[in-house]
Amino acid sequence: MDNLLTASFEAHNTDRNHHRRYEIRLGRDLFGEWTVSLNYGRTGRGGQEIRHTGSDPAQLQHVIRESLRRRLSAPGRIGCKYVLTGMNAAEGIDGAHWLPADLMSQFVLTDPSPKLGYRMICVKSRECRRK
Predict the structure, then answer these.
(1) Looking at the domain assignment, is residue 126 inside a domain?
(2) Measured between alpha carbons, how far is 129 from 116 in angstroms, rounded to an integer?
């Protein structure tokens, strides 16, 4: 069951023809073990999937943290930044527990508009609201 928590990211650089997507999915398998699925590839294509399973949530939180850190290095590697495009969590799942706020805040586009104060702009996400 991979649908307890999902975070989706995209990176686009039209000059280099880079259109990438990345998705982190958290769930539980039939044996009650935690699963983390990392899906990535070119936007609109099948892509690749890497699965991690374990009973220790701390170990899987480390996997998530390291994959997010790698996505933050994208501007130096592919010339563009990954942006959070969607996030969904099932009832009872604390997204902040699994997705570290210090890293997630770097994936959100922000507009420091003096009229509206500091507000969040989310791409393709209905869950984000103006702050």
Answers:
(1) no
(2) 13
